[in-house]
Every structure is written in structure tokens, then in C-alpha cells.
Amino acid sequence: MKRGFLPLVLMTTLIVALGAYAEVHSSVFLSKSNLNSLLLQSMPLIIVSFGQAVALLVGGFDVSVAALMTMCVVVASFTLTPTTTGLAIVPGVLAVVGVGIGAGVCNAFLIRVLQLPSIVATLGTLSVLEGLALLLRSYPQGPINTNVTGRLVTSIGFVPVAFAGVVILAALADGWLYRSRPGLALRGVGLDARSSRRLGMPTSLVVVLAFVVCSLMASFAGFYLAAEVQVGSPIIGNQALESIAAAVLGGASLAGGKGSFFGTLLAAFFLTEIDNVLPLFQEPAEYADMTIGVLILLALVLYQAPELVERLRSARRSVGSAPAGQGEAPA
């Protein structure tokens, strides 16, 4: 089996195994209402994880996405109010998307122009966005237009139309990533930026676009978060860590250059499934965080096992050759 398929097989197996276990212990799990709720609940994490996967592909990551999603919800409570109708909805939607683009440009400037590490730059952006959200809404208030959010959750049977859309998007994105020149450039910058630059690839532009796309996807995820809370809430979730976890479990390398959008989708769905199943068993929500942490560690070891084995062999060879060199007498 090719190593690229390992995350897909593992995530699919875990999704099916957890679902089967949940159904055996609770007939509610496979009910149409719960499946519809599960698929809709997974949408924000899936979309923001797509963006996080793009950032990881160029060797960085964005910890500000949760604060950005929250900021988008808060902005939507001002621009997409219940009284907003007709064409007036368009500027309201563009305002939310504009927040995402602005945050992405800011992150890209800090990372490429000021040469700050991505974690430092996005931590700064996180603090600014968190403060702005609390300044605009000190507590949950301001209802969001249900006509807009209702369209986002339109379903055929128990399957949301948007969920079918992200499945198709993930498949197309993986094809683009591994079968197109721009996809090769994205992976090449993450694998070796210096060599990519020597080959004429616009490495700075690729990194800038990667972080803009990451923030843009977070703003799209903010619409689905707004559909969940339906009010301008400044309370920040844990989508930043979960999006990184989903991308890594889906096959992304923290060193950059590797990843899978379809694997990221499966991993994000699995993490949401954990949150969905725990209440059925009346288990504490903290178990989900513990499980995610353990899975990330296992994935890092499992996916990178060949590299780890090769490093151990190289270390042994270097240790074994050191005494022979040290034992030679000086001339």
C-alpha cells in the first residue's frame, strides 16, 4: 500500500468503527436527524481544515483561524441582521469575506515581509482578532439573518447539499495538488523553498497566497459557525488546534510539502464524530481533547515511521563509524 493512502484507510476505518460501536450502544446514532446534525456540525471544521492544510503544505500553520471564525460571526451579526433583505445581503456577505482576506494578507505580510515565524505571526493576529470581537460584542448578542443561514444548511434527505459539495471539492483539490503545475509549486515550496526558488518558482507569492487562502477558508467556515450559533458570539472555539489535528491526521506533514484534502476531510469528520458520540454515552467532553491528542501523536509516529527508521539507521551508522575514525593515531 502506498503511504499516501495510509491516512485515508486509517481515517475511514476509524470512522466506520466508531460509528458501528455507537450504533450498537445507541440506536440514536444512525437516525436521520443525528446524521444530518453530524454532517452539518462537521462543516465548519472541514472547511477551516482545508485552509489549514494549505498553510501546512508550505511549511507553516495558522493558529488564528478560530479567532477569525469568531470575528466573522460577530461581523455577520452587524452586516447580516434579520432586517437585511434582497441585494443588501451581498455587501454583508462580502464584509465577512473581506475580514478573512484582510487577516490573510496581514499574516502573509508578517511572515514573508517581516520574516516572523508563522506561529508568532498568527498568535499576534489571534490576539488582535480576539480583542476586536470582544470589543464589538462583549457577550453573545445580535441575531443573524436566518434566511442566509438556512440556505447554508439545505439538505436532501439527511445529507446537506454543502457537505456533498465539500466532498467533491476535496477530490478535485487533491487532483489539482498532485497533477497540476501550481499544485507542484505549492508542494515544492513546502519541501524545499530554496530549491524551488532556484527552479524559478515564485516562492514568496505561493506562501502569501497559501496564508490568504487559509484565512479565506476560515471566513467561509465562519458562515457555518454562524448557522450553528445564530447570534454574534465572541466566544472562541478550539478550531485552530482541531484544524491542525485534522490536517495532520489526514496526511499532512508538519515539515511541509505533503498533505491530502480528502484525508483532511475524513479526519475532520472523524473528530466531529467523536464530539457527536460522547454525549450519547454521557461522557465528559474532555475525553474528546484527550483522544485527539493521542491520535495526533500516533499519526505522527505511524505516518513518519519510514523517516524515523532511516534516521535511527543513520545515527547507528554514524556512531559505528566514529570509533574507527577516532582510533587512528596522528601522523
Characterise the protein shown here:
The structure is a single chain. With 331 residues, this protein is mostly helical. It has a single domain, classed as ABC transporter involved in vitamin B12 uptake, BtuC (Orthogonal Bundle), CATH 1.10.3470. The protein has helices spanning 6-25, 32-57, 65-79, 89-113, 118-136, 146-152, 161-179, 181-191, 193-198, 203-229, 239-249, 261-277, 286-303, 305-326, and strands at residues 141-143, 155-156, 159-160, 231-232. β2 (155-156) and β3 (159-160) form a beta hairpin. The model has no long low-confidence stretch (mean pLDDT 88).
Topology, please?
Layout: H1 6-25, H2 32-57, H3 65-79, H4 89-113, H5 118-136, E1 141-143, H6 146-152, E2 155-156, E3 159-160, H7 161-179, H8 181-191, H9 193-198, H10 203-229, E4 231-232, H11 239-249, H12 261-277, H13 286-303, H14 305-326
Antiparallel strand pairs: 1-4, 2-3
- Which whole number gives the mean pLDDT? 88
Counted up, domains total: 1
CATH topology: ABC transporter involved in vitamin B12 uptake, BtuC
Poorly predicted regions are none
Which descriptors would you attach to this protein?
331 residues, mainly alpha, two-stranded antiparallel ribbon, 4 strands
Short description:
The chain has 331 residues and is mainly alpha-helical.
